[in-house]
Amino acid sequence: MILLCLDANFMTNVTSRFIGGIKPRPLIAYSKTINLNGFCGVRMECWYKKGGALLAEIAETKSGGALLWFLGQMGFAVKMSGVIVYFDPFLNDFTDETGAPRCYGPPFTPEDGIEADYFVCTHDHADHLSLETLLPQARRNPRTRFIVPRPLTGILTGAGIDGSRVSGARAGDVLELDGGLTLTPVAAAHDVYRTDENGDHLCLGYLLRDGETGVYHAGDTVVTPLLVETLRKLKPVNIAILPVNGGDWERSEAGITGNMTAEDAAKLARAIDADLAVPAHYGLLSGNSANPAFFAEAMYRLCPSKKYHIFAPGECFRYGLYG
Questions:
Q1: Which of the two residues, 15 and 131, has the higher pLDDT score?
Q2: 122: which DSSP letter?
Q3: How far apart are alpha carbons 84 and 82 in whole angstroms?
Q4: pLDDT of 229-286, one tens digit each?
């Protein structure tokens, strides 16, 4: 099947493999030829910076304002007030049950020595919460602490991570981090709100704040009135990192849980008055992706006064001039 995208470089003949699904762990893989707006058919090399050079940059760059590095899918490293927080780190190789790999490999692995104060995961899908990433990091760096939705803490402790290093996050309950940072969990609807028997959400986004700058990492979610209302109450949201891979009936039929579309993401950025919008969740896994150029088009059409940035994998972006 030919997938037609905005950029001719993204035109390819793809047999799509899917990753996703409502039921967590293990992540379900599918093999089926349908058009899911994906554009990855072969393994690519697309890192702007990787390996030791990228690790050194994250560890050594002084964090005046907020520093962000895109690590693929929904993975970001954020450095504020000297504290390094990794969101949804997916830093291991991956091959689904059909033999399809990631479209491009990880920039580094925990075995390379990752300086991180916190690993923060949004929900229990293996491209967001991967024990193949978390366990080696726990072994290699005893300083790293782990934050996941409260219903998922047992996944980490059951795999051998000491419970004193694992924090369970609940929507609305602010966590105090090192360096005077705060982390506010925000309920996420992937693709509906799901809670456990205690009413705790299985999927979360997070707002990381240093007192002056707020960075919202949405995790996987669609846009709901509750999400808009919550984020408006948490203003200012200076930076909004939003999934743009969307969803459709074909993916739903295949068991793949959807997210907001590129247009929904642009409208959310406008609704919460985010100063900078960042698209994510594209390009890494075939069959459940999108062309970020659609997000650029939506931003230009719907809110041309708003800033946005499309990252190259491994690129550093500095937000703010103070410090």
A1: 131
A2: -
A3: 7
A4: 999 999 999 999 999 998 888 777 777 788 999 999 999 999 999 999 999 999 888 7
Strands (E), 12-62: 12-13, 17-20, 28-31
Nearest of 123, 240, 249 to residue 193 by alpha carbon: 123
DSSP 77: E
Phi first, then psi: what are they for 117, rounded to 5°?
-80, -35
Decide if pLDDT at 127 tops 80: yes
Buried b (16+ CB within 10 A) or exposed e, 110-137: bebebebbbbbbbbbbbbbbbbebbbbb
With CA atoms as reference, report the closest residue to 79 among 270, 317, 321, 241: 317
Q: What share of the chain is helix, strand, coil (3-state, %, to 5)?
A: 25, 25, 50
Q: Give the C-alpha separation, 56 to 115, whole Å.
A: 9
What are the distances in angstroms from CA 247 to CA 64, 284, 301, 310? 37, 16, 21, 20
How far apart (Å, rounded) are the C-alpha atoms in residues 104 and 313? 10
Domains of the chain: 2-313 (3.60.15.10)
- Within 8 A by CB and 6+ apart from 309, the residues are 276, 277, 278, 317
DSSP E strand stretches across 33-124? 66-70, 76-80, 83-87, 118-120
**pLDDT number for residue 204:** 98
